[in-house]
Design brief:
metal-binding, Pirin family protein, metal ion binding, globular, six-stranded antiparallel sheet, mainly beta, Jelly Rolls, iron, 1 helix, nine-stranded antiparallel sheet
């Protein structure tokens, strides 16, 4: 019986997911040098783009909803969490609960929308003398009904806080697994927010990012229970699972026993998501997730009534000043910076 349960296409930048995950967006943008005045592309390169709604991938990059700096200006969320893992480039975060951050270079940010929050995610271009590539994943993780109305929470996990497990196969070829959530062997990442499904031991939730050397074999460990669902997203190179090669495809795999995955001759990079399903109704409309239609109606009513907090900036698309390094300022005034 095949250990590969179901394969699916991941050519598009939005990947299918399984409960408790709602959504995964893979952003890979080859941004050019900045214009030197703003932290956006040169104005000449913006001509002909549908600014405010640019998802065409022209010249290998998008402005998304930005019109000067690429990104996603102020927008609301409710009833779930966003986990953003930035492999390359920077993100400027601002939210209506009072958190502000610039992060990237392997950092991860965990935002619990809970009862409601508005935030902006802008992608500043900091180099005027060379390209500004951006590579990130944004994962939407559902909240169980018991904590769907939890207060908004912002957590910053710097790259130096995220364990990287290095393993070698019988031929000495290396694999490196970065842990955002979930134990791998004896390594454990920072604790997730308390309201999260990931904070419950029974969730068996994991978010791993793996890089395999050419032809390397990585053994994925056994899950904690038979109902855990594990999904692989090999987005670079090829990956062979139980005799079937995945190229441009993801797969749901059996997690009940150790599973060997093998990179192709160019190596492989993949995102791994796993967890036990929450198993509750999901009603989603745009940026809101609820357990009922009434819950969705309440989300729109509360947002329109201004109950998602006060937006702290005149701009809907705030970016940090030129030269700002990575930092996070929490709503209570605490400031955190990476150790390196």
């Amino acid at each position: 019986m095949s250990r590969l349960i179901q394969a699916f296409d991941i050519a598009a930048p939005q990947w299918p997911t399984v409960d408790p995950f709602l959504f995964v967006a893979h952003h890979l943008d080859a941004y050019p040098a900045a214009d030197g005045q703003t932290q956006g592309p040169p104005r000449a390169l913006l001509r002909g783009r549908d600014l405010g709604m640019d998802f065409a991938g022209r010249e290998g990059w998008n402005m998304y909803h930005g019109d000067v700096v690429p990104g996603f200006p102020q927008h609301p969320h409710r009833g779930f969490e966003t986990v953003t893992l930035v492999e390359e480039g920077l993100v400027d975060h601002t939210d209506s609960a009072g958190a502000v951050a610039r992060y990237g270079a392997g950092d991860a940010q965990w935002l619990t929308a809970g009862s409601g929050v508005a935030h902006a995610e802008m992608f500043p271009l900091t180099r005027a003398d060379g390209p500004n590539p951006l590579h990130l994943f944004q994962i939407w993780l559902n909240l169980p009904l018991a904590t769907k109305d939890a207060p908004a929470d912002f957590s910053m996990f710097w790259a130096d806080q995220l364990p990287i497990v290095e393993t070698s196969d019988a031929a000495g070829r290396l694999s490196r697994v970065k842990l955002v959530a979930g134990r791998f062997g004896e390594a454990t990442p920072p604790a997730p927010p308390t309201a999260s499904w990931a904070a419950r031991p029974e969730s068996d939730l994991a978010i791993w990012h793996a890089t395999l050397d050419p032809d390397a074999v990585l053994t994925l460990p056994v899950s904690a229970g038979p109902d855990t669902i594990r999904v692989l997203y090999p987005y670079e190179g090829t990956l062979t699972v139980d005799g079937e090669t995945l190229a441009g495809r993801g797969a749901v795999v059996d997690a009940a026993t150790p599973l060997e995955v093998t990179a192709g001759s160019a190596g492989a990079r993949l995102l791994v998501l796993q967890g036990r399903p929450i198993g509750e109704p999901v009603y989603q409309q745009g940026p809101f997730v609820a357990a009922s239609k009434d819950g969705l109606r309440a989300a729109f009513a509360d947002y329109n009534a201004g109950r998602f907090g006060r937006w702290p900036h005149a701009s809907d698309a705030p970016v940090q000043p030129h030269g700002t390094g990575r930092f996070a300022r929490y709503p209570d005034g605490r400031v955190s910076t990476p150790a390196r």
